[in-house]
C-alpha cells in the first residue's frame, strides 16, 4: 500500500459540540498526519460539489442546509491506507448502529431530523479524495 491522502470534514455538529479536539486526537493517535486544516462556514458551491453524488436524494436538501448552517473544519490527513482507515475510525453512517469504539458510535446519536448528523465525513476512494481535496483546499499540491 502507498501513502494516501484523505479529505475529512468535522461537520457542524462536531464543532458545535466542541468535539474537534477529541476527533483530531483519534486521527493523530491512530498515527495519521494532519497536513492541512481550516475552519470555515461552507459555501453553497463547495457543498454542491462535495455532495454531487447525493443530488436528487430525499436527504440532499437537509444535508446541504445542515452542512452550511455553521462552521465546519476541513482536514487533509495522510498515511498508509488512510482512506479506508479513517472510514473505519469514523464508523458506519448511522450513529445508532455504528460500532462502539468508532467516532460515530461513541460520540454520535440519532435525532428526529430529515438528515443524519454524524460528526464526520471521510473520502471513500482515492478518486473521491483527490476530488474533495481540490474542493476544500484548491491548489494544494
Ligand atoms: P457517509 O458519510 O457514511 O459516506 P453517505 O455518503 O451515504 O454516507 O451520505 C452522506 C451523508 O448524508 C451521511 O453522512 C449522512 C447523510 N445521510 C446518508 N444517508 C441518509 C439517509 N438515508 N437519511 C438521512 N441522512 C442520510
Ligand atoms: Mg459518503
From TrEMBL:
Keywords: ATP-binding, Cytoplasm, Kinase, Magnesium, Metal-binding, Nucleotide metabolism, Nucleotide-binding, Phosphoprotein, Transferase. Residues 3-140 form the Nucleoside diphosphate kinase-like domain. It catalyses: a 2'-deoxyribonucleoside 5'-diphosphate + ATP = a 2'-deoxyribonucleoside 5'-triphosphate + ADP; a ribonucleoside 5'-diphosphate + ATP = a ribonucleoside 5'-triphosphate + ADP. Its cofactor is Mg(2+). CDD domains: NDPk_I. It is an enzyme of class 2 (transferase). One of its GO terms (biological process) is GTP biosynthetic process. ATP binds at residues 11, 59, 87, 93, 104, 118. GO terms for molecular function: ATP binding; metal ion binding; nucleoside diphosphate kinase activity. One of its GO terms (cellular component) is cytoplasm. The active site is at 121 (pros-phosphohistidine intermediate). It is found in: Cytoplasm. Its main location: cytoplasm. Its EC number is 2.7.4.6. InterPro entries: NDK-like_dom, NDK-like_dom_sf, Nucleoside_diP_kinase, Nucleoside_diP_kinase_AS. PROSITE patterns: NDPK, NDPK_LIKE. HAMAP family: NDP_kinase (MF_00451). Homotetramer. Major role in the synthesis of nucleoside triphosphates other than ATP. The ATP gamma phosphate is transferred to the NDP beta phosphate via a ping-pong mechanism, using a phosphorylated active-site intermediate. Belongs to the NDK family. PANTHER family: NUCLEOSIDE DIPHOSPHATE KINASE (PTHR11349). This is Nucleoside diphosphate kinase. It comes from Brachybacterium phenoliresistens. The gene is ndk.
